[in-house]
Amino acid sequence: MNKLKIKKMKAVDIPSCARVIRKGFYTVANEFHLTIDNCKTNGAFIKSNKLLQEKSKGTEFFYLSYKMKKIGFMGIKQVDSKAYEIQKITILPKYRHNGFGTILLNYAIEYAENRNAEFINVNIINENLKLKQWYLNNGFKFLYTEKFDTLPFIVGYMSYKIEKDN
Fold first, then answer.
1. Closest to 83 in 3D by CA, of 137, 123, 42
2. CA-CA to 149 of 20 to 30 Å: which in 1, 36, 125, 130?
3. Is pLDDT of 85 > 70?
């Protein structure tokens, strides 16, 4: 694991990080029949300029490097004084099921905790039962669902309560 690093995305990393997001989200887009026409906001269709735009609005982006190759990605955004949100978390398909996603998730929790947040939240495709179970196994609680006319799936909202050490 000494060849594993989480690094903050720099401007020079944007094109390669956008590729990681597209490749990572492609499998889910394919499984749930998401297209640029029915779900243009899905990570499978992200372009570098959109990533730059989100960064300029305050989202911090990080990539996971393994043996000097970008294999994972996530964004973390402050929602309010008590909560952060995980965005675009993904691991390239050939590296999945090796604990890399959990490493990113734990980093996000620690990041929020170090900024005195009480919660870290994530929104998922509610029908993605495998992903929902992964978050539950990692201490997240399911909150509620919401249906948007602009999305071909139901959004599931989940949250992790950050325990303060006293």
1. 123
2. 130
3. yes
